[in-house]
């Protein structure tokens, strides 16, 4: 056993000298909380130290590695924690007999793998043929090709995703966001195969995935809603009559999907029928569901979201809000947290409504993990909390007055690559607009300031393809 610890210490020293800070800290966590009853650890060439399901300490690269054997015992759970109640402490180690299949790609897959490794849980990555060299594939402990480049043949193809999880003996599956994250049938299938889906239960997905049903559910829970239709529109005649009763302008919205598709703003009665048919056709093509409903159009509102977290024991809290008002074509460009528009009284009222909404449908999980801006202001790893909830742990949080660690502005944009146009310059211009600096923003911010924000668009459009090719050569 002394030789085992000597080997671990040498490896950790290498990580420290080589500058692998995350690997060093992760290793220290495991070493500090080492226990003979654990099933094992392995150290791989990618600089991580992980819980080993095979009862060996593995050092080196795959076949060339050295194996140090010690008895393996199955364990259900081991928790040793030193951290603050809000999750910001220095040390946290959880070693379990678990393995997570990450059913996604890109940034979210990398974030899930990073957090799982810090919790001592190995991960299996899935990838399409075009993603074989992607970062998430290199970071994972194992990887499985699940099909060709089109997502319909890979990341959305349930049989291949499920086969990867079963063949690699995964006990859990993290869907990330998008793809299969809101597919209730997929959650059912995972459960049928004994795989713990890290996310909401299928009934919640069915209720909230259909926006028309979600409206009715929220109204029953006492959550304020915008005036609109009671359910889906059944005919053009009914829709036209209801639009007059609500009063123009009205918003026609697809009941399925999101991202601004299947949405049309009808300002006048004369254009309503044409826009209704356009919305239904776009919704059918994008989501396979032509259902639409009506809402009163709120002119120039703020778009504010609250981040909730719910466990399997009926506990629900929120982590404050994100102001996503700056949008183009109903898609978010900037997120700011906390919102400069909310008073403490309004923040509490909206937060209470969000918690009530989640509790009313028995929601479990975090709702979404695509908003690191919330993690930044609350010093909370939402993915870690999501995994802990999936494992049946109770929340460690109480709904104290929300503590904002800092104020953050997040701008989703393409990664920088020489010669490839990105939206970075566009976001910089937004930050320089006086109204933005003064907190005077709403969903009409982009049209109002289109002249001030036109420069980077012209720059990108005027860049010749051969110039881009030369710059990236």
From TrEMBL:
User: Which residue numbers delimit the Biotin carboxylation domain?
Assistant: 96-451
Q: Which GO terms describe its molecular function?
A: ATP binding; biotin carboxylase activity; metal ion binding
Pathway as given in its UniProt record: Lipid metabolism; malonyl-CoA biosynthesis; malonyl-CoA from acetyl-CoA: step 1/1
Domain of life where this protein originates: Eukaryota
Q: Which reaction does it catalyse?
A: N(6)-biotinyl-L-lysyl-[protein] + hydrogencarbonate + ATP = N(6)-carboxybiotinyl-L-lysyl-[protein] + ADP + phosphate + H(+)
Which InterPro entries does its entry note?
Answer: ACC_Biotin_Carboxylase, ATP-grasp, BC-like_N, Biotin_carboxylation_dom, CPAse_ATP-bd, PreATP-grasp_dom_sf
The EC code for this enzyme is: 6.3.4.14
Q: Which UniProt keywords apply?
A: ATP-binding, Biotin, Ligase, Nucleotide-binding, Signal
Specify the protein name.
biotin carboxylase
Source taxonomy? Eukaryota, Viridiplantae, Streptophyta, Embryophyta, Tracheophyta
